[in-house]
Write a structure and sequence with these properties.
The complex is a heterodimer of chains A (about 120) and B (about 425). Chain A has about 120 residues and is of the alpha+beta class. Chain A has 2 helices and 6 strands. Helices cover about 25% and strands about 35% of the residues of chain A. Chain B is an all-alpha fold and about 425 residues long. The N and C termini of chain B lie far apart (about 75 Å). Classes of the chains: A alpha+beta (about 120), B mainly alpha (about 425).
Amino acid sequence: MKEFVLIFRTENNPDFKPTPAQMQDMMTSWSNWMGGIAARDRLVSGGSRLGIKESRTVGPDNMVSDGPYTEIKEFINGYIIVRSNTVDEAVEMAKGCPILHGRGKVEVRPVVTADNFE
Amino acid sequence: MNQAGAPVRRPLLFAMHNQQLIPDLYRKEYSKMVAVLCSRFGLGFMETAEDIVGDTFLSAAETWGQKGLPAQPVAWLYTVAKNKALNDLKHRQLFNTRIKGDLIHAGAQSMETDIDLSPQNITDSQLQMIFAVCHPSIPPEGQVCLALRILCGFSVDEIARALLTTRGNINKRLFRAKERYRSGNVTIRFPDEADLASRLDTVLVTLYLLFNEGYYSAGSDEILRKDLCLEAMRLVYMLTEHGPTSLPRVYALLALMCFQASRFEARVGPGGDLVLYENQDSSLWDRELINRGNGFFVRASAAGDRSRYHLEAAIAWWHTQQGDTLEKWENILRLYNQLLVIEYSPMAALNRAYAYARVYGNEKAIAEAEGLQLSGNLFYHSLLGELYTGIDGGAAIRHLEKALTLAGAPPERCVLTAKLAALKQSSGQ
């Protein structure tokens, strides 16, 4: 089996102010989605959430800028790593991701290894 | 006291007492005595130590039967075992000197080796022995057998009955496990601080396995199974009483065991049949054990350490709550989600699917359960049989029949047969 990283991309949406009940639902959906992948023994890593505050981008010549600029375009807000036979299987897993219920997307990328370097 | 002048009632009392006395003492003291001897002379001495302790109990049976009980039977046992051990050592030393023709006396001092029988040393030796038995170089099934023999004082017969296998098998496992000791790869001592965390993990896994052998091995001797659970709890409790191993995760495991064990009586019907959780009479749940578990769980929740045992204890705590609320099952599902993210196991995956059904209904849970792809697993098929009931009778029957071919223990077969009969009746087959 190969490993794929599921990268969550989202846009900043200042209008999105969920109620506590909605937040509870979000938490439950994430828990069930991750739990479902783990229950099939397909979760390699629960990954991480990436914050926005205190983020910087370092460019050539050590140019440091604020950002990523969440106001302008979508940004990465987290990832998990899964195990699957094919990219299609990994895509099926990604289809249940709660980030899709908002305006987010999931990018599915294979992990490059010594025997899988395409 | 003058024995001849003893009141008439005494022989009767004595006989009643004595019937359980030796087995009780054996269970309680055997492991401690072996631990003290091994701690003093090394793990290579284990088989000799076991012989010496076995011999000591034989002497006790003979001597006490003839002359009556000593004032302090436990002290008597320790003193006799100690003398036997020192004698054995003296013979070996003599033998070694003669064989080697070694004329230089190592000095009288080596003959005067003493064995420390203080309560502190007995406890320390037992703790060292727990780590020697639950050693990563010994395969888990060997660890479980050794734990039962060396840490809990079970006889080979009892172990075979508890683990539903033969004496020969148990002896083989014990022999293989002890090879590590004979070859000197494992030493008896408390692990260094740097190794403690990982060594403790091995210990906890094995003690949990021991508990589960007792809790889930349906079909074997009921009293023996309970003993197994209690012994596992005793050993974990011992770890909580000792500074360096008195950690939140150890308390969490102990809490988990208390919560599980609280249903011991309720799980078995009058005819020895298995009573499923949803059909249990909750008035039979052991409140005192639940309360003790709560106390341990509070201590487990101290800052820092979070482990799978915390999650499992929390799941077990929700199961001690009566009634069938949505809140209960939502929490259990969430905890199983977290547990699986930390560590996959087929059993946790199946339990999660069951909790999923309780929250979202059978129809949605079927997809979750089938996604697990655990075909050939008894619990997978019985779960799907359960979930399909009322949705697709044919599929339910197929899964339950498959489960029946996989079930070995009579109580499990009973539950499945009853469900199948009910299904076939309702579908008019």
